[in-house]
Amino acid sequence: MIVLAHLSDTHFDGGQRSAARAGQVMDYLHALPGHLDAIIVTGDITDHGLPEEHEQAEKVLRSSLPVHTCPGNHDGYTPYAGPLNSEHDLGEATLILCDSVIMGRDDGEFSDETLDWLAATLAAAAEEKPVLIGFHHPPVDVHHGLLDTINLGRRSQERLAALMAEHPKVVALLCGHVHSAAAATFAGRPVLMAPGVTSTLNLPWEVSGELTWKNTVDYGPPPALAFHVIADNGRVTTHFRWLPA
């Protein structure tokens, strides 16, 4: 059995608030009495992709546990040499993290380079191990009129679905971007979206009047995260946790 902590959208901006909220999550994880295998951060680690924001993130997210990250759209506001794709051996499972960033834009796509890399990595992954694929932009609608315009593009969704059809060892997709604890299905697999550390997304039926970014981003709720448990049979169970305000 593997236990993974999944957090997302820390949005380090050099200020105290984002650092304090992410620090609260890390302190909580480090104080857990039971075993944790790794920490995954699915993008928007920084708010503008600036060097000082990355330095702050590296300091706060430092851990004796393995910390595996992929970028989000906010990380791509400052161009970097990419794509930042990576594969990680979790012992009883394989974690593949993909870069879905389009530099300077909020919507997401997988580049041809990333798709070719993902195809080769899946083909080479051990058949006996379940595989989790993580990236920032969810490949599904979350039924939010603003967010659904900046999720993973249709072309990438089609290519990803085709790859997953070839590889039944993929047991789940892990995403961020939504700032809401959410779950859906894509190509017959669960899509598990981590809540936001820095803020929470108000849903359309929770908002009065016209839906705008101003009234849909809520900084009041406490930081939250997800735990994913991968059983020996490859089945994934997810628990969400909100930390004390």
TrEMBL record:
The keyword Transport does not apply. Belongs to the cyclic nucleotide phosphodiesterase class-III family. It holds the Pfam family Metallophos. Keywords: Hydrolase, Iron, Metal-binding. Residues 4-180 form the Calcineurin-like phosphoesterase domain. It comes from the Bacteria. This is 3',5'-cyclic adenosine monophosphate phosphodiesterase CpdA. GO terms for molecular function: hydrolase activity; metal ion binding. InterPro entries: Calcineurin-like_PHP, CNP_phosphodiesterase-III, Metallo-depent_PP-like.
